[in-house]
């Protein structure tokens, strides 16, 4: 090997070594950052996340998909509260609301198809309209009398799809609605907190990127599980408005739900979310008492989306919670529970 060749090899080796050291240093810094966060005082460390249980049922829908359903609270309560969770979450995301209401109200909580313990649906059936039909079947099977529907994010869209496809249920069977951190449409126009040109570029490549990731779902899922520290930091920053003070145990709980959702499911539902447009169906909801709740730092379904819903529902009561992001029912359960209890009182009058 000539002197020149040895020099080149040496330089290349140094570059590779420096790059490897940089990656290792970044990984170490990440672990130290997460470690410091986890060592902070954690008021929620003893909270039994994921441990609340009700009476478990399985509902087989009209297209043969098995949905996991839990009924909680007193069976003889005159009013049932039906909870519809969001994208990449499951029924456990209603932990604080379930804990608050289970002593006084009958509740129905269900995992939307392909989420939680419900059966995977097909890509063709991963639509908001199909979720609305699923909700109609849940109400028919598990709600013996009047009920209030509560939906977060995609769950709110599910309620709007129900209004569009089954308007006859509203007024008699469905007496009230809570729409939490959700949207009636135009999610494809979100800036995601980015500059306009960057946001436009992101939206342009996102569908292809998500589809590609979905086709390699198994490989991506293995990577997601390996990168749990990164996922912790991303969930902490994006899901919670007050990320510096949020409980590490709560972040872990939320991140575990998100990570448990297969990448293929994320990809299957992504087009449905981007194409969601149910503003014209909101008039069906208008006659019943309605609560709208959103965090003012919600980057996924920003406050202007809730304001647009409120404009279409003039009798609805809108609550904007300061310093709070998309996982509002977990981050700030107090204001959310207050809004639900106030809604229930209006329904029970």
TrEMBL record:
GO MF: catalytic activity
Lineage top rank: taxon: Bacteria
Signal peptide: none
Domain AB hydrolase-1: 80-333
Name of one Pfam family that matches: Abhydrolase_1
InterPro entries: AB_hydrolase_1, AB_hydrolase_fold, Carboxylesterase_BioH, Epox_hydrolase-like
Stated name of the protein: Lipase
């Amino acid at each position: 090997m000539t002197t020149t060749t040895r020099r080149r090899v040496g330089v290349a080796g140094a570059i590779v070594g420096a790059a490897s050291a940089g990656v290792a240093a970044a990984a170490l810094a990440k672990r130290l950052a997460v470690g410091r966060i986890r060592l902070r005082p954690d008021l929620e460390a003893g909270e039994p996340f994921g441990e609340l249980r009700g009476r478990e049922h399985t509902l087989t829908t009209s297209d043969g998909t098995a949905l996991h359903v839990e009924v909680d609270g007193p069976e003889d309560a005159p009013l049932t509260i039906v909870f519809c969770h969001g994208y990449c979450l499951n029924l456990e995301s209603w932990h604080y609301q379930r804990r608050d209401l289970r002593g006084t109200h009958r509740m129905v909580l269900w995992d939307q198809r392909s989420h939680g313990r419900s059966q995977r649906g097909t890509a063709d059936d991963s639509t908001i309209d199909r979720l609305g039909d699923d909700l109609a079947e849940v109400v028919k099977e598990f709600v013996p009398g009047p009920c209030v529907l509560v939906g977060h994010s995609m769950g709110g869209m599910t309620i709007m799809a129900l209004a569009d496809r089954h308007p006859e249920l509203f007024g008699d069977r469905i007496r009230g609605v809570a729409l939490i951190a959700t949207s009636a449409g135009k999610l494809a126009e979100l800036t995601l907190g980015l500059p306009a040109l960057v946001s436009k570029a992101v939206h342009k490549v996102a569908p292809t990127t998500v589809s590609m990731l979905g086709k390699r779902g198994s490989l991506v899922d293995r990577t997601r599980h390996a990168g749990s520290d990164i996922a912790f930091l991303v969930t902490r920053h994006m899901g919670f408005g007050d990320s510096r003070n949020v409980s590490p145990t709560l972040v872990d709980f939320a991140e575990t739900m998100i990570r448990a959702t297969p990448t293929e499911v994320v990809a299957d539902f992504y087009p449905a979310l981007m194409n969601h447009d149910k503003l014209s169906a909101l008039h069906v909801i208008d006659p019943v008492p309605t609560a709208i709740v959103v965090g003012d730092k919600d980057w996924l379904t920003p406050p202007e989306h809730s304001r647009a819903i409120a404009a279409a529902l003039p009798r609805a009561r809108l609550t904007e919670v300061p310093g709070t992001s998309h996982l509002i029912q977990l981050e700030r359960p107090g204001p959310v529970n207050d809004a639900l209890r106030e809604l229930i009182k209006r329904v029970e009058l």
